[in-house]
Design goal:
Length: 118
């Protein structure tokens, strides 16, 4: 549970969420720190701070390729987090509703009280 809380806390910040989304989109090959900074227009110190936070939370990992540091999403930990949330919030079952919710009014709009009374 502690690891799940750390990961969720890390993702609860806009810059880190944007970095993580970018890393997920990049896939296992990842991106260099410079490319991440350029894509999100982040100064190096800010980027380094957020990447370190994601790595401590188990959501990102780094590897050295020559003179570049390549960051990638830690897909194993990310999948473990999703599995943990699914298992513990839905009892291991699908979290999707089994019955479609009733539709209200035209185009799914809520019907006002005055219209309901008429």
């Amino acid at each position: 549970m502690t690891q799940a809380l750390d990961a969720l806390a890390a993702l609860a910040q806009e810059t880190r969420l944007n970095i993580h989304r970018l890393l997920v989109e990049a896939g296992p090959e990842g991106l260099s720190a410079g490319r991440i900074g350029e894509a999100l227009q982040l100064p190096p110190a800010t980027l380094s701070f957020h990447l370190a936070h994601l790595a401590r939370a188990g959501l990102a990992q780094s590897s050295q390729e020559g003179r570049f540091v390549i960051y990638s999403a830690d897909f194993d930990n990310m999948n473990a987090l999703v599995g943990y949330l699914t298992e513990n919030c839905c009892g291991g079952q699908s979290c999707a509703p089994t019955v479609k919710p009733a539709m209200k009014g035209k185009g799914h709009e809520a019907i006002s009280r005055s219209r309901r009374r008429a």
